[in-house]
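Here is one chain, start to finish.
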Amino acid sequence: MLANLTQTLSLLITANHILDYYAVVTGYGHVSVRNPLNNGTFFMTGNPPPALVRSPGDFFEFYVEDGSPVNEYSSKHGITSELYIHQGLLKRFPGLQSAVHSHSRSVIPFGIGGVPFQPTYHLSGGFIGEEVPVFEIADYYTSNDSQDLLVNKLRFGEALANTFLTPAHNASAAALLEPDHNLVLQRGHGFTTVGTSLPEAVYRAVYTTWNADVQASAIDINDATAVNRGIRYLSQREVADTLTLENGAFGKEWLVWAAQVEVNPLYKNDLGYASIAQST
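Its structure:
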């Protein structure tokens, strides 16, 4: 875990820029990181869109327990109503350090079209896993709720976090450090993915969108052939073994991605672009 708060916030600025650069999180959507000095709070953006985040003043700090702000903020700061996505996950799984919520147009069809999201290649298949749940927020509405698909209440965030568990673990109410699933689609909304570090969560978010592109292309190619031969997704063994590969890959990607946004004049980081430890 990063022990330096300044470095953590620098990485969070970079994460916002990377996610914007790859059109994973643009005007909407968000990324969070747990406070390295206090596991009971986390940081995320508010009003500035990810591309324009540049300083620690662009972040809010919230309590993991209930999502309440650590400091007082006025309405002009634009606290996102969907902070409960992050609050729910970081509370339910103490081993998680970060979450990314995206409205990627590449991924949304797999949450509404009846085609399961599948692991397609070795750089994404491991964390995607053999099954990707779809969160159905309509199951949790009451008659007084605005049915706008937003995870903007404590109970919605808790329900989404529970979707990251298998039915067996949900039934047992066991305390787990990390979820069973690293990725959950949200019907008519987007997806949320998580990581045991901020760079890992960003890697998974970017590669989720790329996996969606690959799967959609494979479906189109398969449908266009005269003889439907089916699509061969990763096997159970391949999913398990590629997860090990991916665990060492995100640091290498982060080096390139951080360099790309550092030289792009759109992005500013008042803290400088911090480095991360590299896996071999």
